[in-house]
Specification:
single chain; 12 helices; about 70% helix; Haem_Oase-like_multi-hlx; Thiaminase-2/PQQC domain-containing protein
């Protein structure tokens, strides 16, 4: 089981959650989905699918390839040996779960007659930016980016899974991808806590204020790009509607 390297978080997670929630609540695309708008729901599922798929692959590429030297210099050889076994297992678990979550995204789309494997859905510019950022070779950026995605997934799921008009749009009356992100069934630290812990461990500074500023900037950019992408998807999929 992964043991966090730092006993206290470097970020105020409640503040980040509030900011993430505000962006989701103000998004025309997400609000339309919450109202049960079929075009908007289809836009959500097809527009963000390339990122959901790429995110799984990005985590897969990280398994077994975490850099060693920065951690040895900071925590010492013996602690790092133990740490690496835990960290690699934690990242592997994330990969396995994100893989299953990607399948849940596909399943939700299939309920609405959407075949995501057809490859007929173009990748819009801001989604492409999300994908590029998720493949960063910088472990600080990569893990803080993963944390940003966790914030988004949790807040998006909490909102839409409690919107009856949205869940009723599915024949099963459930959005199973969202339910998976609402469950929080983890032994030990959550993925969000592990992501922030790893980003902090790889940061060259030992000053919590400096580390917090870096992580907050990366997470903020992730959330901002999601908001931009949601707006672009709304415009592309509902071109004749007034943004409400």
């Amino acid at each position: 089981m992964y043991a966090l390297l730092f006993s206290e978080p470097v970020l105020d997670r409640d503040v980040i959650r509030v900011g993430t929630r505000e962006g989701i609540f103000s998004s025309p695309l997400i609000r339309a989905c919450a109202r049960g708008d079929q075009q908007a729901i289809r836009g959500l599922l097809t527009g963000f699918w390339p990122f959901v798929q790429a995110f799984e692959r990005a985590i897969d590429q990280r398994v077994g390839h975490l850099p060693l030297r920065p951690l040895v210099e900071r925590f010492g050889q013996s602690r790092v040996k133990e740490f690496f076994g835990e960290a690699r297992e934690a990242v592997r678990e994330m990969k396995d779960e994100e893989g299953s979550h990607a399948l849940l995204w596909i399943s939700g789309a299939e309920e609405l007659g959407i075949n995501l494997s057809s490859g007929d859905y173009p990748i819009i510019g801001s989604v492409e930016e999300l994908i590029k950022a998720s493949t960063s070779t910088d472990p600080v950026e990569f893990f803080s980016w993963l944390a940003g995605v966790e914030y988004l997934a949790e807040e998006l799921s909490a909102y839409l899974c409690h919107a009856p008009a949205f869940t009723n749009a599915f024949p099963s009356r459930r959005w199973i991808w969202g339910e998976a992100h609402n469950a929080h069934e983890h032994d030990g630290p959550s993925h969000l806590e592990i992501d922030e812990d790893l980003a902090r461990a790889y940061h060259p500074s030992h000053d919590p204020a400096v580390v917090a500023a870096t992580l907050a900037a990366n997470i903020g950019r992730c959330i901002q790009l999601f908001d931009i992408a949601a707006s672009e998807i709304f415009t592309e999929t509902t071109p004749q509607r007034e943004m409400a």
